[in-house]
Amino acid sequence: MSGDTTTMSGDAITRAIARPTLAQSRAAREVGLKRGEFDLAVQLGRIRTVPDEGGGGRRVTRAEIDRVRSEEGFPEVLRERVKAVGTSEGAALMGITTGRFTRFARLGLIVPVKFYLNRYRAVVWLYLAEELRQFAANEENAALLSGRISAGLRDQLDMELDLRPRNWRGRHLGFSLRQTQDPWARAAVVASLLDPVQVAEIVPDPCERVHMDRYRPGQGTRKAPDSPAAHVIARIMTAADPDEISWLRADLANGLKEARAHRPAPRPATEHEVRRTGRVRPVPFAEHRLPTGYRRPAEPRRTVLPRHPAGDARPAGTPQPNEARHPTRRRPAGARHPVEVRHTADEPGRPKGILSRLRRRNP
Fold it and tell me: For the whole model, what pTM was predicted?
């Protein structure tokens, strides 16, 4: 083998094989969950992930897989903890009608954990079955489950109050912040719930906005950006209430201060210089940074043609080539314009072709 080959000791190879990191799709199969259930388990903190050293998505260590598989009641208990149900199944778990269940959700008494759009582009909210069972088992909620709803709650329903999108955004914000410790990524999570106009007011520097967009979490949908379904999802993921916008703006401003103190946003290689007058002067091309080892091409050398002596050396009566189409222009003596001199093809030592028609001399 060559001397550049890197070798590992036996103990290092054993540790690398014994505790590798797995992609999330592989880890989901290892614990017997569907991909959607696995993602929800990660968001709820049931399964811990680690950043990928190669810069990819988050991964799961073999030790974490072993810990989950060693828990009592695996895999049934894990599946029950991440089980999400819709309105009909949730109402059946709580022993109430679907109408009362929907009113509870609109009032914010139960919080959705995820949503999706059906084929009619209607929003379908999903709730954790474990939380619904806990809500029904709480004695403080017995009056809500069987009695009449109070007048104050009925007034809120009459005003068409619907806290499901806002409660989901708050929960989604907590899930996303739990997955990262980088200040710029945390600021990007908060900015993802605000309108771009709001973000531009708080982050006026375009370089910082571009840097935050690199950490912006996805919407978790494969819809086309301009499709009606994408607009519905964007409306759900954007804060709309004034008080919600207010505290999100405050969180973004504080997070931005922490991010700037931790690490400034990168700037482009060709920065602009600012003159004392305040005007922005673009960097000249000669000052742009070039790749290492790059050399500018040499300028082509100019060929200087020799001047011909004054006068026309053409013998008398010799026809000029193309004279019918391009007659020789004669100027009187003392004229300020140059006199075009033509040479015959038989003249020795004279170049032939188009160059003979391009030569000029001064009188």
Answer: 0.67
